[in-house]
Amino acid sequence: MHVLVVHNRYASAQPSGENKVVDQEVALLRAAGHRVEVFERRSDDIAARSLPGKAAVPLLVPWNPAVRAELAARLRTERPDVVHVHNVFPLLSPAVLAACADAGVPAVATLHNYTQVCPPGTLQRDGRPCTECVGATPLPAVRHGCYRGSRLATVPLAVSLSVNRRRWWSGVERFFCISAAQRDVLVRAGMPAERLAVKHNFVPDPDARRSGAGGHLLYLGRLAEAKGVRLLMAAWDEIAASGGVGVPLVVAGTGPLEREVTAWAAGRDDVRYVGLYDTAQCRQAVARSVAVVAPSTWLEAFGLVVVEAMAAGVPVVAAGHGAFVELVEDGVTGLLHRPGESASLVSCIRRIAAEPARNREMGQAARRRYEQGFSPAVGLERLVDEYRTAIAGRSALARGGDTRASRGDGDSR
Length: 413
Fold this sequence. Notes:
One of its GO terms (molecular function) is transferase activity. It contains 15 helices and 14 strands. It has about 425 residues and is of the alpha/beta class. The protein folds into 2 domains: about 1-200 and about 375-405, Rossmann fold, CATH 3.40.50; about 215-375, Rossmann fold, CATH 3.40.50.2000. Helix 3 (about 65-80) runs parallel beside helix 4, helix 8 packs across helix 13 (about 340-355) and helix 11 (about 305-310) crosses helix 14.
């Protein structure tokens, strides 16, 4: 199979689960003998633009005509079987879908978050779940400045969502939801249910697996409010005040709360802030964990770190909402705490650290769950099956003389 992957890479200064998923899928397909090419832009390149070039970036968010022309020309030359779209913000834009329609190549898209129904893609505002824009216009997001706390920065995302909704929903053969929880939200928002397939992300089998009891609890991820970092700090302070749990908390990552986390961890024996780990360091840190803690306050669409812990045979303490509910079997592969509640998180951390035999059993069950649902072999089979479904669907439409492009959905600009 010949696949062209389309992705706007996130800035390298911040850890990105999406970048990791894209790279792993490309490597998986190539290792299986498929031909995979990449059409990408990099957010890192914005810094090198001239001042007028930087000022023009928001204008490209809803529509980038140069990308449409460049991608359409490449598609006509290379004729891939399918185009796999990931992130298009901020430099690619939904113009990539028009290019696919121009060239008559079927497109599939992985939905890594909720940007189809929420401008910032988080379904969260002021640290609490928010669905005000779901199934409606995105004006509330602009009013509240939901993207980076700025009304001005939110406008391009809101405009793109409004003017390109029909293009997304008609121009993509198959949407890959990364959890059933995410799919349920999108169906309720009015997205076409028949084109929304659940395809969990896979995780490579790590070269490090837990062999003993573990020497620390681990938070691994972006240091942001939505990830529950402040909730974790409050819970850990309560645990420390009552004597701790016998092992330290290791915090690995970077993000907007880095300065706050650094100050909180300074001078403490029970907390170690280690900054941003590379891939090998992440795997070693997970494998040495008593448990991995994922206390997100937003509705995670998947939760890559949860599955990475499972792969290493490590149980998880996670918030009991969003995709975590389908990834973690409470009391079997880990523990689920009540979302946003410090006391519940404290209780779960104490339990998972206080019962070594039970912890070991949960780690073994977590590994079995990984092998059955999130291994590379499972991921490859599901991905290729979905590609074939999309290709067959486009072929059937073409035979019927009713392509979406002919209805104007792909050529209106």
